[in-house]
Amino acid sequence: MPLSGMGAARQGGRFNRPDQEALYLSLDDATALAEYKQDNPWLRPGTICTFFVNGLQVADLSAGFDCERWPSLWADFTVDWRAEWFDKASEPPTLYMADDVVAAGLDGILFPSQARPVGTNLVIYRSSAKPASQLRVCDPDGVLQGLAGH
């Protein structure tokens, strides 16, 4: 179910709380691979595919942090959210950013990659509810549908 965002919902992520659907995408394949691998020296099995995204309203952090609505908070997106969440049992500021984005009715956040500094990522909220005109996966041969049953 590549559009579900439920993988990130299992434990949460940089911009989503546990049980909050969030689909994390990268704008290029090298960044996608770096994000998938993270700091693990071994590449675990997985599926990489192309998504088509159109007409979503997103908070754009990709070019800097001069945002009038959330000026001081946005600069904290680079915090080590895993250390905050898992080591310190404290909610990282990025979760509050996500709350603000969702409350404002935006579809997601465009942000610089921490795994590949020249890359850009996009997190999309409520991804499974988006119409195909806004979000769809490239699967012309139905391969992903075949994997869903396994």
Radius of gyration equals: 15 Å
Shape: globular
For the sheet with most strands, the description reads:
4 strands, mixed
The amount of helix comes to 25-40%
Query: Could you spell the SSE succession in H and E letters?
Result: HEHEEHHHEEEH
Which parts are unreliable, with pLDDT below 50 for 5 consecutive residues or more? none
Strand content: 15-25%
Biggest sheet, spatial arrangement of strands: 1-5-4-3
Distance between the termini: 12 Å
How many helices? The count is 6
The tally of domains stands at: 1
**What is the SS-derived class?**
alpha+beta
Task: Give an overview in words.
With 150 residues, the protein is α+β, with helices and mostly antiparallel strands. It has one domain (6-136). It has 6 helices and 6 strands, in the order H-E-H-E-E-H-H-H-E-E-E-H. The chain has helices spanning 6-9, 29-37, 71-74, 81-87, 93-103, 143-148, and strands at 22-26, 51-53, 58-60, 108-112, 120-125, 135-137. It has a 4-stranded mixed sheet with strand order 1-5-4-3. A two-stranded antiparallel sheet has the order 2-6. The longest helix has 11 residues, at 93-103. The mean pLDDT is 83.
